[in-house]
Write a structure and sequence with these properties.
Length: about 240
């Protein structure tokens, strides 16, 4: 099985260890992994900001870069959602219809890919800590991925998963939303941090670096001891 890594901008610039750990996880799982160096942004920031022409240009580039990949796997529900759910809305060129369907159908968020494509739930990882899990919006609402990351967490040796109250509530990041509406964004992350603190968990795990940046920043500023942890960093630490 051949897998091409799709590494989002935020991961590349601020959380490179997430991409490295994703590579290690997929190799451990038995995949042959490559990283197409020509890849750039998927176009989500431009799309969400109303720059649709620029987003379409990036989307078309993505299709060409990954056209020969067997599978495309990303450590982000948000960017995976952009490809799978929104590329079909913005790419209207009939000449790209077949390529569009092919690329979007083989693009996966990594927990979904491990559990539902490769059939892997146990990577032999040991992490003797209390954790809680945050459902990132696009992963849950657009891609309908809820149980796969929890299955992977529950199979970690020594771990204790404590569900927070309303784990599906948004953290308030939303990309440019947090910049345009900082007061609302802050109120939302305040509620999320309170739910995390109530669990007594040592770590809050999520599948999107953007959510973890938002949540981790607030936890740090308010001196709440729970630490943000990407699921790829949790699963890749012993590999």
């Amino acid at each position: 099985m051949k897998v091409s890594l799709f590494i989002p901008c935020l991961t590349d610039q601020f959380f490179p260890q997430v991409g490295i750990n994703l590579y290690k996880i997929l190799k451990k799982a038995g995949a042959e992994v490559d990283y197409p160096a020509e890849q750039t942004c998927c176009g989500q920031p431009a799309f969400n900001s109303g720059y649709h022409a620029e987003a379409i240009e990036l989307a078309q580039r993505f299709l060409q870069v990954f056209r020969s990949s067997e599978y495309i796997v990303a450590p982000s529900g948000s960017c995976t959602s952009m490809v799978k759910m929104f590329y079909p809305e913005i790419i209207e060129d009939p000449g790209l219809r077949e390529l569009l369907h092919d690329v979007t159908s083989k693009t996966y968020e990594f927990s979904d890919f491990l559990v539902n494509v490769m059939g892997i739930r146990d990577l032999g990882v040991h992490f003797p800590h209390k954790v809680t899990y945050h459902d990132a919006c696009h992963l849950l609402r657009e891609l309908k991925v809820k149980e796969a990351p929890r299955d992977l967490i529950r199979n970690v040796r020594g771990i204790e998963l404590i569900e927070m109250e309303q784990p599906e509530n948004c953290c308030g990041f939303g990309g440019t939303f947090s910049v345009k509406y900082p007061e609302i964004s802050t109120a939302m992350v305040e509620d999320k941090a309170a739910a995390i603190a109530q669990t007594g968990a040592e770590y809050v795990v999520a599948n999107d670096s953007s959510c973890l940046m938002q949540i981790g920043g607030y936890l740090s500023r308010k001196h709440i001891p729970a630490k943000p942890l990407h699921l790829a960093d949790l699963l890749g630490q012993d590999l």
